[in-house]
Design brief:
two-stranded antiparallel ribbon, 2 strands, about 75% helix
Length: about 180
């Protein structure tokens, strides 16, 4: 009969599994962008712009990768804290230039974007840090699953929910608007 296929039910099940794995891969790969977009949203709400966010992320990541390659015994949670501290310092540097010197944010962040990219080139010697140089614990951290979702996806979900609560239910969040 027309419209009826003789496809094996297990083949359809495999197709659904592939589709679900693709969806999970997209969510996991987008998790870092989701987190960055939340930060950029606050900047845009305050009528500003930050062009250096990706360079800030790249410099923080390169610092952590170089530290992990040189000292593989440092635990992953400590490396995550180092990355967050590095990103916070770079972002605070932008904020201080904008706030104290009164330079427009687009000018400051365009300049620091170039500076941060240059620093990456200098500290890495123009080379990449390959996965084989990183500790197994560091690499496995991106592959951990919890309840069927990668850990990075759960982090993005948790940060998004916390961000929503902060922006809509707290005085500092509401004052940003």
């Amino acid at each position: 009969p027309r419209g009826v296929t003789s496809q094996d039910p297990s083949a359809r099940s495999d197709g659904y599994k592939r589709q679900l794995n693709n969806l999970l891969g997209i969510v996991n790969n987008s998790s870092m962008l989701i987190i960055l977009a939340l930060g950029q949203m606050v900047v845009i709400i305050t009528r500003s712009i930050d062009l250096s966010m990706a360079a800030n992320l790249a410099l923080s990541g390169m610092c952590v990768a170089l530290i992990n390659a040189a000292y593989p015994e440092i635990s992953v949670p400590v490396l995550v804290c180092i990355a967050m501290a590095c990103g916070t310092i770079l972002g605070a540097f932008n904020g201080l230039l904008i706030w104290k010197l009164g330079i427009p944010s687009i000018v400051v962040t365009l300049g620091t974007l170039t500076i941060y990219r240059g620093v990456i080139f200098l500290i890495a010697g123009g080379k990449w840090v390959n996965a084989d140089q990183l500790s197994p614990a560091f690499i496995q951290g991106t592959r951990l699953d919890f309840l069927g979702l990668p850990l990075l996806s759960w982090c993005a979900i948790a940060i998004t929910l916390a961000f929503f609560v902060m922006m809509t239910r707290t005085a500092p969040g509401r004052s940003i608007y």
